Amino acid sequence: MTFLSVILFIFLLIGVFFNGLGTFGLMRFPDVYTRMHATTKCTTFGSIFTSWSVIIFGFYFWKVSSDSKYGVLALHTLLALVCLVITNATGAHAIARAAHRSGVMPKRAVIDELKEANLE
Question: What angle do CA 90, 34, 16 make, to 5 degrees?
Fold first, then answer.
């Protein structure tokens, strides 16, 4: 097993682990806010590692084989990763805001700063 294979395997393992944690949090947590926190944090972190493994794979084989399809694979994955990092947090914020405006309150919440600030 080469050094590259070990790095790719470790990155994929970390990515699958954090994606699994996000799935576990989605099933386990009590309300929309904590579920969203688990899914966005864990799956973003997991997707970063799985995407980095694809990017490393693509750039390595682009250099070794001089085949442009591997470079295109790496660049498209990098672009998708940037879009994922931006839209995942933005989407989670929009969903949480919509849930709050529709009256869904967090379970066991002590303070509701949005209601206190009159931002609705």
Answer: 75
Q: Give which of 48, 43, 105 is closest to 80, Cα–Cα.
A: 48
CB 22 within 8 A of CB 46: yes
**Residue 117 DSSP class:** T
Q: At what angle do helices 68-101 and 32-65 cross, to 10 degrees?
A: 170
Give pLDDT tens digits for 16-49.
Answer: 999 999 999 889 998 888 899 888 988 889 999 9
Residue 115 CB: number of other CB atoms within 10 A? 11
Distance CA 81, CA 44 (A): 9
Q: Following DSSP, what letter does each residue of 47-70 receive, concatenated?
A: HHHHHHHHHHHHHHHHHHH--HHH
Crossing angle of the two packed helices 32-65 and 3-28, in degrees rounded to 10: 160
Instruction: Give residue-wise pLDDT tens across range 68-79.
Output: 899 999 999 999
